[in-house]
Structure formats: C-alpha cells, structure tokens
Design brief:
The longest helix is centred in the first third of the chain and has 14 residues. Helix 1 packs across helix 2. The chain has a single domain, classed as 2-Layer Sandwich (60s Ribosomal Protein L30, Chain: A). The protein is an alpha+beta fold. It is built from two helices and six strands, in the order βββαβαββ. The mean pLDDT is 90.
C-alpha cells in the first residue's frame, strides 16, 4: 500500500503574506490584511478546492514541501541563479499554509516537517508546487 500524497501546482507568481494593518476610523480601531495578500490567498484556495476530498485526517502528521518559482526581473544580473532577495521564503510559506488550512489539511498544526525552496522560473511563468504527504518520521514501522 502506498502512502497518501497530494501534489498540486498553482499557476501564479508567488506572493508573500503581508503583515496585518491597523486603521483608526470613526473612533474605532480596524485591523485588516493587505488586499494583495487577501487576493493571493483566495486565488490559491479556489484552486485547491477541487482537491478537498483528499484532505488529510485531523490526527495525521503531515510533511509539506513547497517550491516557489518566481519570475526573474530583467534588471537582475544573469549570474544571480537563486532568488536570495526579498520577499522572504517564510512569508511565501505562511500564505500557502493559511490557504491549505481547512482544505487539504484540517489544521496547519498537523504540519510536522516543511521543506521550502525559492527558485527562478525557467519558463518565465511563476508557479507554486505543493506536495503534502503523511510524515512517517517518529512513527515506528510495523513488523
């Protein structure tokens, strides 16, 4: 029997999760997420909904692998082979973790292992590669 695995590729240039903003209007404090963050998260969630039936159960530890393929600006030097500039890799991951929560996994607390990569898109088209699988680390093998 093979272990359960979900692989999804989302055709979008990756967006980092922005910090929540606070505004003071009509004597009240309002907090909100930046529109770019909301739009990107909603886009990812819409694409993941078709995989909802494959959701991992609540009691299953999950290993998450994310590869963010970014579009390289023509102003950057050709010798720059990896996208080491901002935005930060962990902010890309936060957005995807929030998007998969309740769709591919019941709770993002189930994620026990993460492998993250930020790369240039060779074809000039940004996308996000998502792979979820059961995390067997720490679970004794059956004899």
């Amino acid at each position: 029997m093979t272990a359960k695995s979900i692989r999804v590729t989302i055709a979008t240039n990756p967006v980092a999760k922005g910090r929540p903003r606070v505004a003071f209007r009509n004597g009240k404090i309002w907090s909100y997420n930046p529109h770019k963050t909301e739009n990107a998260q909603n886009f990812i969630m819409e694409r993941l909904m078709r995989h909802k039936d494959k959701c991992f159960a609540k009691n299953v530890p999950v290993k998450l692998t994310l590869v963010f393929y970014r579009i390289k600006s023509k102003s950057l030097p050709k010798r720059e082979t990896l996208p080491f500039r901002k935005p930060d890799l962990d902010n890309f991951a936060k957005l995807v973790c929030d998007a998969i929560n309740g769709i591919l996994i019941v709770d993002d607390a189930q994620i026990t292992t993460m492998i993250l990569r930020k790369r240039w898109a060779n074809d000039g088209k940004g996308h996000i590669a998502i792979k979820l699988e059961g995390d067997r680390n720490g679970i004794p093998a059956k004899s």
